[in-house]
Description:
The structure holds two protein chains of two kinds.
Chain A: E1 3-8, E2 12-16, H1 36-45, E3 54-58, E4 60-66, E5 70-78, E6 81-83, E7 86-87, E8 92-96, E9 101-106, E10 109-117, E11 153-155, E12 180-185, H2 194-202, E13 205-207, E14 215-219, E15 232-233, E16 238-240, E17 248-250, E18 257-258, E19 262-266, H3 268-275, E20 282-287, H4 290-303
Chain B: E1 2-6, E2 10-14, H1 23-38, E3 42-47, E4 51-56, H2 63-79, E5 89-94, H3 101-107, H4 112-120, E6 124-129, E7 136-139, E8 154-157, E9 161-165, E10 168-171, E11 176-178, E12 181-185, E13 206-211, H5 214-220
Parallel strand pairs in B: 5-13
Antiparallel strand pairs in B: 1-2, 2-4, 3-4, 6-7, 6-13, 7-10, 8-11, 9-10, 9-12
Amino acid sequence: MTGLAVIRPGPLSLLQDAGRARWQHLGVSPGGPLDIHAAAWANHLLGNPWGTPLVEIALGGVELESRLDTWVALCGAELPIAVDGESRPNWSSFPLRVGQRLTLGFARSGQRAYLAVAGGFRVGAVLGSVATQTREGLGGLHGDGQPLRAGDLLPCAPASLPGMASVPWRFVPDYRAEPGLRVILGGDAGDFSVAERRRFFAQAWTLSPQSDRMGMRLLGEPLRAPTRQWSLGVTTGTIQVPPDGQPIVLMADRQTMGGYPVLGWVHPLDLGLLAQCPAHRTLRFERVEVEAVQGEMREFYRFFGR
Amino acid sequence: MRLEPVGAEALLLVFAEQPDAGLPLRIAALAERLRRELGPLLVDLVPGWTTLLLHYDLLRTDHRQLARRLLPLLEDWYAGPPSSSAGRLHEIPIWYAGEDLAEVARACALSEAEVIALHSGTEYRVGAIGFAPGFAYLGELDARLALPRRASPRTRVPAGSLAIAERQTAIYPQASPGGWHLLGCCPRRLFDARAEPPCPLAVGDRVRFFAIDETAFRAEGSVP
């Protein structure tokens, strides 16, 4: 099989697809891209179906050499993109010829870039998905949950497309802005006092450097949380409040169950904005109703052909 | 019983405020039935001690429609007999030589032999599977062995470790951080993504442990 050879893998580059559905009852994390907006666009620009395997690149610093003629697309974090030293635009598709080197510098804004290839990377699935789960040792190029390494070959097939495509500017987020993350209140929210809930929405929270693909930890004036005892199933976007009062937003590599009190859930599209925030960025929360989120998510899934 | 929306793509069924011995098996039976009857509407069904979380496909349904579909099924399940099946029984060998065995014995004012006898003399029920792939929470541990979690969790607990905390016991299927007290080691693999099914235990199943010695452990040893 031919493909893209990994010369420099960057600090954390992970094969991802739509995630590992249908195994949560055995404790298997769903995984998948942290920023579904940017990932969906990268595939869409190449005419790939929803959830086609692509690479999530944290921070950048990647160099690949093409062993075939194909097309790629990059979306997400703004980083210098070059093919044999010649610059290429972000949020766009472009051709890559055999022998050419694709070089990605380090992100100037945003934290995760998505690299899709025409037809997708052809990798064997583990439990129905190629999503790389480093903690659980599942998925990825070798099926063992390892990130990309120098010397790996990302398998794909030759492809030729009619021309370059770009994401319309109004769909390109500004990752430099302080995000206002929309939250559906619920879960144990009723057990928090009115004053605590007000404090959650009124203050600016700071993203902790302790954050990762499992959970984004927020630092601020601590909330007084109620207690809860029996672990139950959780969803991506869940806002947990542990006893120290510093909220944790559960991300794609989350556990399947949790026992901490839940204040609500972040809008799935706003999780992408959260994932693009560097450590120490401040952010705020605002309320949204569940029906509005459902309408927007249906439109998003339909547009990208989920 | 309550139905609560969880985010924009899940619905939580809450059956009780406190777990009881028969509930996990009943929840498992309901999950099986919902999987069969609601098929593509549901993506993932996650049983908890007293709950069942349904991750649904938003392009096919939402929490209101799903609740309407569920009501007759739930009434039927609620009225039904408390499940004829007793849950499958797994008998799992343990080499009781864990790092914390002596400390647990001291903390519980028992001998090590008494700790082993109490732990292996109880039949447990799988109440939930979570935390990590194949990590089955087993209840209910004898009250004489109930201890709070360790003050500071270990950064690495070896795969196959048998552990206890509060009124629960479990085996760590993979090496991971963990705050429970280690009583022994299990030579069998409890999660293998290539096996069918990947995890031999299911919610509602019964588990008994029996003590083996080091020789038997090494002979069976499949855990790396």
